[in-house]
Amino acid sequence: MQEYIKINRDDNVAVALRDMSKGEKVVIDGNETFLEEDIARGHKFTLIDIAEGMPVIKYGFPIGYTTEYVKRGSHVHVHNIKTGLGDDLEYEYHPACVNVSSNDLTEEEKYFYGYERADGRVGIRNEIWIIPTVGCVNSIASDIAGRCKDLTCDSIDDVVSFEHPYGCSQMGDDEENTRLVLTALMKHPNAGGVLVLGLGCENSNIEVLKPYLNTYDSSRIKFLQCQDVEDEVAEGVSIVEELAALAKNDVRTKIPVDKLVVGLKCGGSDGLSGITANPSVGILSDIVTSAGGSTILTEVPEMFGAETILMDRCKNKEIFEKTVKLINDFKDYYRRHGQTIYENPSPGNKKGGISTLEDKALGCTQKSGSSQVVDVLAYGECVKEKGLNLLSAPGNDLVASTALAVSGAQIVLFTTGRGTPFASAVPTVKISTNTPLAVKKKNWIDFDAGRLLEEGMNVDIIGKELYDYVLVIANGKKVKSEEKGYHDLAIFKQGVTL
What we know:
Layout lengths: L3 E2 L7 E4 L8 E4 L2 E4 L9 E3 L8 E4 L2 E6 L8 E2 L4 E2 L28 E6 L5 E2 L3 E6 L5 H10 L11 E3 L10 H15 L4 E8 L7 H8 L7 E5 L6 H16 L5 E4 L4 E6 L10 H14 L3 E4 L9 H6 L4 H20 L10 H5 L5 H8 L8 E5 L10 E4 L5 H10 L4 E6 L11 E5 L2 H6 L6 E2 L10 H16 L5 H4 L15
Parallel strand pairs: 12-13, 12-14, 14-15, 17-18, 17-21, 18-20, 19-20, 21-22, 22-23
Antiparallel strand pairs: 1-2, 2-5, 3-4, 5-8, 6-7, 7-9, 10-11, 10-16
Helix pairs in contact: 1-4, 2-3, 2-10, 5-12
């Protein structure tokens, strides 16, 4: 197993891949360095003396500037490095040549088995969803779902209720976001049937939401307004049974990978995220997009510091300008609320070895692989272009993962160095950055990318294994959170609650 790594030839720091002790000798590029102090796994140490105010280089880019003289072999972290980011930047489009090698896929690997829907989209699950229009009926939705669990069978994966606290007492963008999210989920291809459960007096009531659906399959989306009936639970159960009777006849068919939409997300990152799990997901993203499918990268605040890399990969000037707007709009969002734009990384990130937002962003954006950026999506907007898409959403795990599902992702890949049990509206694959986490939290982690540090492993191998695993999940295998029955929903709240 590797013990340390210099990621890019231009780096002036290396990363410890195990806990290392003061006095240990490190040999990189033929040069010897003796550690001046203990270095925890995932943390950085200098390969040269770095004067105060000089850049710290990792991934081949500056991740910040030293706040004091740092001797060769010393720990580089929040105590002696600060961000180099400012509030406002001027961006120029420098299109980069993007050459993504299409991995040779077998005929079997070009397909998965999913549920083709009437609108042409494809689901990888056939579930019955109960979607409340307002938080007031959350308990009723949960009650109905619980009473209908016995309807699951070989062709119906689950009956799920998606509780949330919104749908009333909202204004402006918040109210609009709630309506966009709820109606997008009503038409999500992973749902074989949907019961929309309303109260009757809420702002975002059923009649208000229907126009957002435009055309829809009335046999698959049913509505119940609780104030209009005597026993809303009995009525709800009856409707779910009707939906299940239809959905149980659905069958998986052979679907080309160009119908696959994969959401890319990370949370609880550590110093190994940008070395193991995120680059592995990047390889998968390139495989999927090369095969004609789509991937979606979000967490805009965690692009700050690496956004120019994505901008230079935009397919044309129009998409570049949309990416600039994506970044600047999120900065304005912070300013409007009087908050610091670069209030990141989190305590867990820092404990894992991430020192600055640039450090985090350069690791996070590796999930996008090397593909061209084909489109930029507003919050609540569905994927239209095949290829790598950028999506406007915050870094919060539940909010961002929900946003990915709303934009059409049938599955979310979630890399983590700290571990988390949460789920989202769609299968959420937990990918560990390090093997100790995968061993400790077998009940959370689905795929161990930490194996990349073993002898004989490389990122192409792990990325291809991850792609094959995603096909298995798309074909029906449940991830750990699904096995436990976990499903979460979180809508992006930005403003006033009445």
